[in-house]
Amino acid sequence: MRTRIRAAFVALAATAVVLAGCTSSGQAGTAHGSVLSKVLSSKKVTIGVFADAPPYGVMNSSGEYQGFDIDKARALADSLGAQVEFVSTTNASRIPMLETGKADVIIAALTNLDERAQVVALTRPYASEGQLVVVPANSPIHDYADLAGRTVAATRGSVPATILENEFPEAKPNLFEAVADSIQALRSGKVDALMESTAVVAGIRASEGAAVRVLDAPPLAPSFVSFGVKMGDQVWLNYLNNFILNYNISKAANESYNKWLGMDVPELIK
């Protein structure tokens, strides 16, 4: 009897050791294999951003990136003690860029759509927005109903493109690869209207002045905006969530919001 008890105890102890080893090894492996570990080790973080979508991100004549999202990207790199490497992205290429490892994180006006959350990990929001319609100042379009039969510019793979397809079936979407192309189409009269986010529209109004106006109507699809990372890296996602939590209550965040969007950080995302 005593021999059987001793044998059972030894077996249980051995099992406990194996399980403990698996657990600690798994945790260490997860942390070690995270993008966070890679960034901390290499002192470099690769961030996908817009290069032609004011005020989120643009590349100026000197070849330098600047904009609302660029402020966030630089602050993130500083928090990691890392050098930032920017890679230009578009609405359509953001998620593929993550999936192929061309960027450690996407900071490019990524709206929190449920279908996106099925293929890419989204952080807590760093901004909130809606979608607006811009028309030439002398346009006969005055409300959303007037979009029927009109050509409306949007960027491919964007929230406005989805809205036009689902909510404005009588409009005629004209989809472009870049926001700058949509703006040029509106400026040249190739389209009757343009649908973009509140942040992008703020930039359009600043650059186009009295030549354009925004429809006096409630924003469409009010939503949150997040960083995007590749699925499966909870350690990296946890760090980014913690960074955004601290950043959104900082003076730097409020200054960036006012500089690019003309408002304080919304209480909704603090």
Automatic annotation (TrEMBL):
It comes from the Bacteria. Residues 44-264 form the Solute-binding protein family 3/N-terminal domain. Keywords: Signal, Transport. It holds the Pfam family SBP_bac_3. The keyword Metal-binding does not apply. Residues 1-20 form the signal peptide. The keyword Transport applies. InterPro entries: Bact_solute-bind_prot3, Solute-binding_3/MltF_N. Belongs to the bacterial solute-binding protein 3 family. PANTHER family: ABC TRANSPORTER GLUTAMINE-BINDING PROTEIN GLNH, AMINO ACID ABC TRANSPORTER PERMEASE. This is Amino acid ABC transporter substrate-binding protein.
